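Amino acids appear as letters; backbone shape is given numerically. Here is one record.
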Amino acid sequence: MESELIKFGYKDLRVETVGECSPFYKPYAETLKFYKSVGFEVEKRGRLRNNMGYKWRHSTLRKKLAGK
C-alpha cells in the first residue's frame, strides 16, 4: 500500500491516537506500540486532558515514506 501512496506523491503518513493515558489502558498502549513497530514516530503531543479521573493526551504520529 505504501508504494501506491508514493506513486501518488505522498511523502509521509500521519495518524492521531491516544499517546498517553492514566490510569493505564492496555488497548491504547498496544495501539501506540503497533504504530511505533511499523515505523511511526511521535511528531506532536497534544495537551493533557482530564475527565472524570482519567488523564490522556493525543499524539500525532508520523511515518516518512521511502521515496525513489
Q: What stands out?
A: The chain has one domain: 2-64. Residues 17 and 58 are 6 Å apart (CA to CA). Strands lie at 12-22, 41-45, 49-51, 54-64.
